[in-house]
């Protein structure tokens, strides 16, 4: 690790579990880079993703967005294609876009939306889009007839997430420049969504651990008991 990272890591008490308010106040003090770093949440949940009914995959609309301008592609035809363009989609098409991805390995976008009737065609892209978490999926609202709404929500800062093999959910919740209040509201929005998605078959403590970190900085662990109390309010 570099000297600057080591210096900031000393500011974090590794034995302490911080309240959410303390954590978002501490994050700016850990910044040593010149760019506006992204803040990420890593939540380890008491679920077993090997069981289909405990695999969590969904999306969440952050009240203050992510601070990133996202490029959205929409696979649609006719009226739905026009609606997508009017809503601000960056790329709209059908067979032409599918061919572009297949033949040119074109991936110049951050999120993909498709109407249900297009999934037979878009399914050919599974091996390319799947590993990059770009494949449209009805569970996260990216396979829909209401493409205009989906485009607007993604542009406004809707994020997608799913549990990894170890039961951890990673998700971006904003930029360092947002400040404590906006970051806290975004984080609570994500955690509230995760709480509502708790599988009925999940036993024991649901939030095993929650950590916040910036792009380059050390992680700050939250007090999961305090988070649970906040979510019950």
UniProtKB/TrEMBL annotation:
SUPFAM superfamilies per UniProt: Ribosomal protein L1 (SSF56808)
Membrane-crossing segments per the record: none
InterPro entries registered for this protein in UniProt: Ribosom_uL1_bac-type, Ribosomal_uL1, Ribosomal_uL1-like, Ribosomal_uL1/biogenesis, Ribosomal_uL1_3-a/b-sand, Ribosomal_uL1_CS
Pfam families reported for this sequence: Ribosomal_L1
Keywords: Repressor, Ribonucleoprotein, Ribosomal protein, RNA-binding, rRNA-binding, Translation regulation, tRNA-binding
GO cellular component, one term: ribosome
Subunit structure, interactors included: Part of the 50S ribosomal subunit.
Family: Belongs to the universal ribosomal protein uL1 family.
Function summary: Binds directly to 23S rRNA. The L1 stalk is quite mobile in the ribosome, and is involved in E site tRNA release. Protein L1 is also a translational repressor protein, it controls the translation of the L11 operon by binding to its mRNA.
PANTHER family for the chain: 54S RIBOSOMAL PROTEIN L1, MITOCHONDRIAL, LARGE RIBOSOMAL SUBUNIT PROTEIN UL1M
Protein name (Swiss-Prot/TrEMBL): Large ribosomal subunit protein uL1
Organism: Nannocystis bainbridge
Gene giving rise to this polypeptide: rplA
